[in-house]
Write a structure and sequence with these properties.
The chain has about 210 residues and is mainly beta. It is built from two helices and eleven strands, in the order αββββββββαβββ. A ten-stranded antiparallel beta barrel has the order 1-2-3-4-5-6-7-9-10-11. A hairpin with a 4-residue loop joins strand 4 (about 95-105) and strand 5.
Length: about 210
Amino acid sequence: MLLFFVLISAFIMVNKDIKMPDEKKIDFGPLKNLIGTWEGDKGLDISPEPEGTEESKYYETIKFEAVGDVKNAESQTLIIIRYLQIVKRKSNDETFHDETGYWIWNPEDNSIMLSFSIPRGVSVLSGGSFEQLKNDELKFNVSAKLNAPDWNILQSPFMKKNAKTIEFNREFIFSAKKLTYYQETVLEIYGKTFKHTDKNELIKVE
């Protein structure tokens, strides 16, 4: 866990060269159309239970904000947006997922990174690519694996023992007004390996 926050601090908190969006004109490239507030109520979460699975329909809000750019080691420039995702079950309106993180674009090689944390003692640094689809649609694909040399997953001792995340994959398909996603989190939990999935469709509301 310490390593994850050291990496984030290196380009967000400690690095004096970070430029906020009001300091200069920044090209957010493939991240541009995400900036804003999105809402969706077609979510479906399939999660593990000791005996079988649980399906939960949900609604959510994701707010993406422009951060700016940052220079790492005087040689790498990254473009950054931050987000907060709040997910609530339709059955009782209770929040069951709270996620905050950063989407990061490297213009030099057009790669995409996603770093995020959830308040269960789990943090993920995933990486991947994007591609242009029809019209103005883009598709992001990022992934991480436990103990991978590059894109990794960090988690608390309790989660390692009881609900270990061993793989994470997320796909975003979006335009200026519509966003759909599908994600798969592979867990070792309740004595079995389980593919925990989430999907939803959102519309930009502001």
